[in-house]
């Protein structure tokens, strides 16, 4: 019988730290942060784990040759248990999203689940694979925005989707290694993603940041409202850039190593950096949406994810 550790390895449990930030960034951008946001983030994690289990079930024969240590080919988890777990997690994720977010959330959770399964069963080994996986992450961001004005979350969704494209494109060369042109393309994409996330969200975001940092129109400690607003505007402008720079520095450095040495090991390291570094990008987008302190909290999952990845591989 499979142990909890075996199942955690099957679903790549630590990688789920890269998931809640999608929902939070979408909610911040849409002005929809609320008590239901954590539950929607939980639904997103369930769907992510479902996708990981379905992925290993679909790849069980290939993994028997290339990754015999994985839970299914090693015999620690049966194929039936893996696909059953994937189906159960999918139902739980969609059900939770519908329960807390109503029809609007369900209208995004259902196509998100379908796209996840479509990637694992059909698109993964095709030219459309990176685009389909990118669509999964974009829909995940919009799931968080389902309680507000979703059009405002489209830029954040596109930014996370673009990052996901780079990680997925690299992941297709985890076993064979890559030529130098691939990491050069993904590195250029990462630079554009970081630049997009670093752009401040404007007056609306600055106003929300002011509220969340305790700055009001009343004089505080001898500092008038004009100075307070100026300080909050500075925070709103600088914080997304700092977090986006952190994301770009670590993930970019890993890709630069692949340019220098495009071996399979370097590619896997870059993929891991892209997965565990995503919270920093999500934090930048959350801060850009006006939730500065929450953005910092989201970004804090990045170093935690790196530590956990040393015990359970996220790739």
Task: Give an overview of the whole structure.
- This protein is an all-alpha fold.
- It is built from 14 helices and no strands.
- Helix 2 packs parallel to helix 12.
- The longest helix is centred in the first third of the chain and has 45 residues.
- It is globular and about 60 Å long.
- About 5% of the residues have low confidence.
Considering the chains and any ligands shown, give keywords for the structure.
315 residues; mainly alpha; 0% strand; globular
Provide the gyration radius in Å.
20 Å
Give the strand tally. 0
Range of helix content: over 70%
Mean pLDDT: 89
Order of helices and strands: HHHHHHHHHHHHHH
Task: Indicate the proportion of strand residues.
Answer: under 5%
Structural class determined from secondary elements: mainly alpha
**What are the segments in which pLDDT stays under 50 over at least 5 consecutive residues?**
209-223
Shape: globular
Largest sheet entry:
none
Q: How many helix segments?
A: 14
How far apart are the first and last residues' alpha carbons, in Å?
A: 24 Å
Break the fold down into its secondary structure elements and pairings.
Layout: H1 4-10, H2 20-30, H3 37-58, H4 60-66, H5 79-123, H6 129-144, H7 154-171, H8 181-198, H9 203-212, H10 225-260, H11 264-276, H12 278-288, H13 292-299, H14 301-309
């Amino acid at each position: 019988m499979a142990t909890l550790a075996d199942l955690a390895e099957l679903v790549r449990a630590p990688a789920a730290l890269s998931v809640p930030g999608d929902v939070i960034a979408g909610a911040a951008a849409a002005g929809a942060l609320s008590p239901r946001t954590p539950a929607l983030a939980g639904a997103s994690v369930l769907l992510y784990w479902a996708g990981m289990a379905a992925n290993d079930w679909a790849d069980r024969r290939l993994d028997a040759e290339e990754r015999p240590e994985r839970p299914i080919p090693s015999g620690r988890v049966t194929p039936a248990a893996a696909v059953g777990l994937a189906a159960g997690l999918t139902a739980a994720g969609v059900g939770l999203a519908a329960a807390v977010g109503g029809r609007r959330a369900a209208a995004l959770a259902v196509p998100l689940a379908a796209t996840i399964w479509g990637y694992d069963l059909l698109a993964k080994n095709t030219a459309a694979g990176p685009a389909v996986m990118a669509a999964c992450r974009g829909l995940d961001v919009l799931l968080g925005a389902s309680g507000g004005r979703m059009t405002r979350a489209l830029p954040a969704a596109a930014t996370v989707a673009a990052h996901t494209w780079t990680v997925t494109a690299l992941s297709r060369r985890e076993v064979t290694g890559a030529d130098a042109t691939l990491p050069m393309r993904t590195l250029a994409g990462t630079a554009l993603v970081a630049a997009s996330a670093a752009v401040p969200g404007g007056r609306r975001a600055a106003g929300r940041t002011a509220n969340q940092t305790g700055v009001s129109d009343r004089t505080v400690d001898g500092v008038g409202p004009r100075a307070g607003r100026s300080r909050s505007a500075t925070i709103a402008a600088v914080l997304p850039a700092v977090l986006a720079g952190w994301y770009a520095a670590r993930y970019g450095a890993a890709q630069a190593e692949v340019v220098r040495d495009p071996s399979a090991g370097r590619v896997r390291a870059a993929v891991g950096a892209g997965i565990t570094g995503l919270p920093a990008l999500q934090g930048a987008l959350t801060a850009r949406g006006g939730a500065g302190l929450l953005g910092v909290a989201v970004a804090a999952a990045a170093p935690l994810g790196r530590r956990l990845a040393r015990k359970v591989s996220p790739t």
